[in-house]
User: Fold these one by one.
Assistant:
Number 1:
Amino acid sequence: MIADNIERIRQHIRAVALRCNRNPESVRLIAVSKTFPAADMKEAMSAGQRLFGENYIQEAERKYSELGQQVQLHFIGHLQSNKTEVAVKIFTMIETVDRMKLAAILDRALNRYGRTLDILVQVNIGNDENKSGIEPENAENLLKEISFLKNLRVRGLMTIPPFSEDPERSRVHFQALRHLAENLQEKGLFYDNAAIELSMGMSHDYRIAIEEGATLVRVGSAIFGNRG
Ligand SMILES: *Cc1c(COP(=O)(O)O)cnc(C)c1O
């Protein structure tokens, strides 16, 4: 089941990318495995999936100790400052940095391990009061401040738009995130301005996200089923 879902979604991603004249290789699938056991992740791995998204530090730590370095984990949840020590050990990317205080704590933790870490800045693109993320108008300042931290590499932006049953309603938010990213890119504020990441789109709206430029789509329930 899970392996079939992965195959089907991969093919769909490919088809959507080709239809809008994008290189299919430029869109990566993150299998969002939060609340699902490591056994389910192994099934996804049997279909070649290596990249997973996790929201909870302790849960991710448990699965990481079982699956080890065969998996690449992106953190996509709300990160508390007191969990950064573990986070920098098990994640290859933290997608949800949205405040300078958190960035500074991550940077210090990385210093102790002599490591660097790829991050995304999470933007509250729909100004949704229930969502985390920096306000779009403050993103430039945050990127400037983070650029002084030598262990963090801002690779791009991430967003979760306000939920709507109708995926078309996500489109304006995805467009807004891309325009913001292009603006910051012109100002040279990313670690690599020739290749920036846009993490946007989930099970119900990843098609729209790819049409609007997503390079990372975060798909959970369409792969693993509904969360209880
Ligand atoms: C849970 C989650 C997802 C996956 O959502 P689905 O609707 O199950 O695909 C994607 N992104 C974030 C940030 C999440 O927390």
Note: The first helix runs from residue 2 to 19.
Number 2:
Amino acid sequence: MAQADFRSDTVTRPSAAMREAMVSAEVGDDVLDGDPTVARLEQRGAAWLGMERALYVPSGTMANQIALGAWTRPGDEIVVQRWAHITTYEAGAAGALHGLQSLTVGDRSGRMAEHDVLAALRPSYIHCPTTALVCMEQTHNVAGGRVIPLEEMRAVAQVARDAGVHVHLDGARLANAVVASGIEAPVWTETADSVSLCLSKGLGAPVGSLIAGDAAFIDRAQLVRKRLGGWMRQAGVIAAAGLFGLENNVGRLADDHRLARQLAQRLVAIDGLGVDPDGVETNIVMVTVERPDFDASSLAAALAEHGVLGLPMGSDTLRLMTHHDVGPDDVARLESALHAVLG
Ligand SMILES: *Cc1c(COP(=O)(O)O)cnc(C)c1O
């Protein structure tokens, strides 16, 4: 029997219609003279994001790292949320690849108070590193997919810009924020000078991300992408999947959000699990395991024996995500597996 995989929205497999688009994609050598499908994705993505230009890159991590490389020089400092993907899940790339030092602000709520960001900005002083970039994240992954309020992002952007510091938005799941809030992407991206977007998560593509900004930023971003080895040849075959996702799979994120909320409501009744349905704003459900006999890993292992997968994050948190390839039947299966395991 197929597994019900709630570990991540990255586990989706391309649908038949998406594969069809990949098979019939027009391609060329993107490095030599351009790939027409990559070009269409980049134009379409830039328009959707409300940015001048976009580049297609292999992953969300590379998209973020291209932005860091494009905006900074070695020895510079970036101000970034304490639990951001850039801080937590990019294997120290900011230091390893670009010689950057990070100052982190905020907590697991994913929020960045404007006064904390202001306090983190360095004065122009020979002894201090130069603050080169402020990084935000939307939706915030570790904070359980929460939508950071627009007013807060505007306030942070204002503080940065008043100091002449650029802003990068890790918008891996920006499409989820757009659908959850009803606020279009260009309104969110007004708060940033560069933005990344994952095509391989809720949008259902097997691979790929975009990094977007103005023309001058993209010129620098192209150089960094080249250095990182992220400029691909007949990439239209995979870009077609990203284009299909952007054109067809944004609206359906509302289904993922509804299902995540329902999932959380079903788990409230189960003893020994801490879950807050009102905190579920998008497609991520964070479950606290409050049992003497289970931690997150052992619970995940027990659920896997019932064909249901969740992702342990730390000792007491199990992350469950909804996406294109799970539905109400899978939620029912998760619920009965939890009853079977926890009694
Ligand atoms: C998944 C994710 C990324 C990076 O994505 P990869 O394609 O796995 O490299 C970046 N930022 C956030 C917030 C993410 O959730």
Note: Residues 59-61, 64, 85, 137, 141, 170, 172, 198, 200, 209 surround pyridoxal-5'-phosphate (CB under 6 Å).
